[in-house]
Design brief:
Layout: H1 9-20, H2 24-45, E1 53-59, H3 61-64, E2 73-81, H4 93-104, E3 114-116, E4 121-125, E5 130-139, E6 146-150, E7 156-160, H5 161-175, H6 177-196, H7 205-217, H8 225-239, H9 281-303, H10 307-318
Parallel strand pairs: 2-5
Antiparallel strand pairs: 1-2, 3-4, 4-5, 5-6, 6-7
Length: 326
Amino acid sequence: MERELFVDHEILAAFAADRVNLPKSEVDEHRAQVERLRDHLKRVIENHEHYKLIKTLHSGSVRKGTALRSISDMDVAAYLDASQVPTGKEADLISELASILRSAYGGTKAAEDFEEQTHSVKVHFHGSDLDVDVAPIVYEGKPDDRGYLITREDVRVETSIPLHLEFIRKRKAVYGKDYAQIVRFLKYWAREQRRVRDDDFRCKSFLLELIVAHLSDSGTPLSNYRLALENIFGWMVKTELSETIWFDDYYAEGDLESSTKRIRVYDPVNPTNNVCAAYTVANHRALVEAANDAFDAISAAHYGNSRGYAVEQWQRVFGATFRGTT
């Protein structure tokens, strides 16, 4: 006699539709907010004494189709002409961009609404409760919009927003809607872990996108959500995230920069950028521990003898909002 699954693919799909996925109506509202910011930025930089704005590009989870219902942030890249960036002033770009953005809003927003971060300036909008991260990119005219993210420590990181988007589109074309859905499930899980665990838990959304891409490219099926999540968390536990992840879409294996870091997951458009280079030993340990807890919970739910027990186990993964109904 086949064991009854109290939490199956259909229940997880219903949970995604109800709690995880961002509705299209909200996508449109967020995009409109970003367009208004881009217009403000263009107007101010056009008359700036130092900087020439080449373009702005909308990037991030909404553009990729992996945004959560609870999204509170959007991403915009501001491409600045490298020849106009004052020599020796690269490290000042973040603070100067914050000043430019304050000017763009003409004093209608408080100074604390512009938060300087490592790679960007976060602009908070109280009406929509939306944050928009604006990242300056120093552009030297390279193809595929390759430019350099600049940190406040004056570290240059090459990136290409069009190629990042193309990388995701390729996977979505091959694996259908399931690729983005599994990414959203994992992002929802990571958000819950950040809420309930200590500060050692660190898990970038970009890392989760690349793990799903790596495993799906390697043959892990995604169409059954329960099984896919169990397999992904099981892989994270089995490998302890020590397996090097890289992709041959835009470079060869020989281009990879060697690293002694325990987690080695390389940006698919930049073979010198290990996206987990800043993760500490404690971060690594906490991430594997959280994955192990999720794997144990999903396995326990599978073999449990009641719906209540199965739902309780899945709540260890997704939090109390998981109800286990269709």
